[in-house]
Amino acid sequence: MATGSVRWFNPTKGYGYIAPDDGGRDVFVHISAVQRAGLVLLPQGDKISYEPKIGRSGKISAENLRLI
């Protein structure tokens, strides 16, 4: 599992971004992944672990989220 910090998340818009600890590009996170993890929101700066998945558009998104 990869780890990172929540850079930005807006529950109204339904998405946000995680800054990976390895210094790579920010990873997209959708509200559906947050809800599947049993969370309501992701406060900025919170540490999180996730599985990076390549979506239909070819961009990486976060799945299987866990606060750490």
TrEMBL record:
Q: Does the keyword Transport apply?
A: no
Localisation per UniProt entry: Cytoplasm
Question: Superkingdom, according to UniProt?
Answer: Bacteria
Instruction: State the PANTHER family in the record.
Output: COLD SHOCK DOMAIN PROTEIN 2 (PTHR46565), COLD SHOCK DOMAIN-CONTAINING PROTEIN 4 (PTHR46565:SF20)
Q: Which SUPFAM superfamilies match?
A: Nucleic acid-binding proteins
> Where is this chain primarily localised?
cytoplasm
Q: Which InterPro entries match?
A: Cold_shock_CspA, CSD, CSP_DNA-bd, NA-bd_OB-fold
| Keyword S-adenosyl-L-methionine appears in the UniProt entry | no
Residue ranges occupied by any CSD domain in the UniProt entry: 1-67
- Report the source organism: Bradyrhizobium xenonodulans
| One Pfam match | CSD
Spell out the protein name for this chain: Cold-shock protein
Give UniProt keywords alphabetically. Answer: Activator, Cytoplasm, DNA-binding, Transcription, Transcription regulation
Q: Which PROSITE patterns match?
A: CSD_2
